[in-house]
Structure prediction request, 229 residues.
Amino acid sequence: AQTVTQSQPEMSVQEAETVTLSCTYDTSESNYYLFWYKQPPSRQMILVIRQEAYKQQNATENRFSVNFQKAAKSFSLKISDSQLGDTAMYFCAFMNPSNNNDMRFGAGTRLTVKP
Amino acid sequence: DTEVTQTPKHLVMGMTNKKSLKCEQHMGHRAMYWYKQKAKKPPELMFVYSYEKLSINESVPSRFSPECPNSSLLNLHLHALQPEDSALYLCASSPGLGSQETQYFGPGTRLLVL
Prediction:
């Protein structure tokens, strides 16, 4: 079974600064996908970024980028130029496409961006 | 358009009531999912439908009954729920099952069982 671990329950960052959220996972699969979702107080789950395990290049989406270390099973999220709207719960997720897209989430990291 | 809609937004029900949650998407997606999210916890997968057929049932109690009448709609029928079933119920959809299939979530239904 796959497990996802987010070791930082809460983090805070000053507006315009950079912050990195950590995520590790455990799996015996070779083909899988990793995601970061954010969940603001409205509770809507919003996709932030996606990484395919077979790709060595780290995914980037505007101010969001990941550091994917496959051998170490690590998948951290870097948010640059933090904005007040980035305040949310961030979930790291592992998806197994060979098992009907079964997706497992980490416990989440609550990020607060301070003005 | 990556919109998944869910109704109702909020639901309060007694333990003897029967109610239904609805989820709809018009993105042409062929896979749909139900998740349950307790307060301050991550979402947990309940059911997966692919091409209107149940693919995964994560050992969910029978008081939760999913239904996929067509590729755009997903229902969750509720009967004889317990107070511990109070949670946010999230629906998601993806183009299909397999590689490169990102799941897009609806806003959820907040359920309170009295």
